[in-house]
Structure formats: structure tokens, C-alpha cells
Amino acid sequence: MSGGMVKQTIQIYARVKPLGRRQQAGIYSVGEDEKSASNLEILVPRDLAEGFVNNKRESYRFKFQKIFDQEAKQEAVFESIAKPVAECALAGYNGTIFAYGQTGSGKTFTITGGAERYSDRGIIPRTLSYIFQQLEKDSSNVYTTHVSYLEIYNECGYDLLDPRHEASRLEDLPKVTIMEDPDQNIHLKNLSLLQASNEEEALNLLFLGDTNRMIAEVRIKLTGINFTLDHLS
Ligand SMILES: Nc1ncnc2c1ncn2[C@@H]1O[C@H](COP(=O)(O)OP(=O)(O)O)[C@@H](O)[C@H]1O
Ligand SMILES: [Mg+2]
């Protein structure tokens, strides 16, 4: 975090992924403590590998702003996590949402969404839709909206919307470098910024970036979106 005005500190949420077909259930519980913070307690049976019966369990407890359990809907995740960030962005504060977790833990599902159902749309399409809805309501200002799509992999940034490239491998995409100016503003050099005037155009860019990402076929450790709006009165 750096530069500019800060409206809020970092908020950390947990989402528990529903079990896959051949996955074994983990042991965990969700609770609230005295200060009504959410706790996620994970129990890791000890010595299972050794094969002897042992009632001792190891417990790990983590605190989060809120915990989304297995049955949590995409809509609820959007409402609690993304909508406040979008509202801050509309009020002039930069906002970042990112998902962190091992491969297969549900980052893409949460951030982008699932392909099967419309209701599985994730944070990005819902937020794009919300932002354009809000902008349409405001007839007293003129807004320009741009989209860029950056992938960070192994400490390098890659431009997923590079117009000159039909990406075959991630390494073939232009590398994006992160630079900080004396005022501590972050600049992403080499990152395309494409105008998207409405939800459809923005979604098309999202699909283009996703396609480049899938073609490049990598295991992604970090997926995110950054919202910056230019206000023109
Ligand atoms: N909350 C969820 N509900 C239903 N399916 C999910 C959920 N989270 C993840 N999945 C499914 O689990 C698989 C792995 O999730 P994915 O988002 O691709 O993980 P990651 O991006 O962290 O590697 C995908 O098939 C995805 O659709
Ligand atoms: Mg993923």
C-alpha cells in the first residue's frame, strides 16, 4: 500500500471451498470470539501417517473479517467484499481485491467466476456491472473508463491485453515493470490501458485477457483486479 489517500486498512476474508468429488473433508469450525471477530479453526489430526490411534489433535486458529463457508453464494461474496471497494473507487479511492491460495483452492472461481451458471459469475463481472450501473445513474459527470489486465507470475508482470500479441506462452507477453515515483505513486510500465465505455466492452476485454491467460497455461498464485477511475467533470 502506498501513496494517495487511504480510506481503509486491509480487510482479510476467508472462503472455504466446497468439497470436490474425490476430496476428503477437512475438519474445521467457524466461530465468533468475544469481540465478534470471525475465527476459523482448523484441526489437523496428528500422527495419521504413522497409523496409530491418537486422540490428540493439532488446532490452528485464524482470525478474519468474515468467513464464507462452503455454501456461500457468489452474490454474498460480491456484496460483502467487492461492493464496498467499488463504492470507494467511485468516491475517488483506489481499491484492490486479490485472492490468495494454493492452486485449486478457488481463486479464479471467486474472482472471475465459474463457467457453468450465470449465478456463478465472480467478483470481476459483478463489479464491472455494478460500476457501469452507477456511472449511468450519474448524469452530472462525464466518465472515461479503462481496463487493464495484468498477471503476476514468478515475480514478473505480464500484460494480458497486449493488442500486438496472440500469446502462445506467458513468457512471450510483454513484461510489465512496476515503478514507484517520488510521490510513491505506483506506475505499471508496458501495461495496456484500453478504453471500455460500457459493461459489454469491459467484459470482452476480460474474456480476451482470460483467453490469453489460459493459452499461456500457468499455475497462478495471485489473481486480482485493480479499479482506478478518472473523473472528468
Ligand atoms: N465456491 C465454489 N463453489 C463451487 N465450485 C468451486 C468453488 N470454488 C472453486 N470451485 C471449483 O474448484 C475448481 C478449482 O477452483 P479454481 O478457482 O480454478 O482454483 P484456483 O484458481 O485457486 O487454482 C474449479 O473447478 C472451480 O470451479
Ligand atoms: Mg486460477
Automatic annotation (TrEMBL):
Belongs to the TRAFAC class myosin-kinesin ATPase superfamily. Kinesin family. The keyword ATP-binding applies. It comes from the Eukaryota. Coiled coil: none annotated. It holds the Pfam family Kinesin. It is found in: Cytoplasm, Cytoskeleton. This is Kinesin motor domain-containing protein. ATP binds at G101, Q102, T103, G104, S105, G106, K107, T108. GO terms for cellular component: cytoskeleton. Residues 9-233 form the Kinesin motor domain. The lineage of its organism: Eukaryota, Metazoa, Chordata, Craniata, Vertebrata. Keywords: ATP-binding, Cytoplasm, Cytoskeleton, Motor protein, Nucleotide-binding. SUPFAM superfamilies: P-loop containing nucleoside triphosphate hydrolases. GO terms for biological process: microtubule-based movement. One of its GO terms (molecular function) is microtubule motor activity.
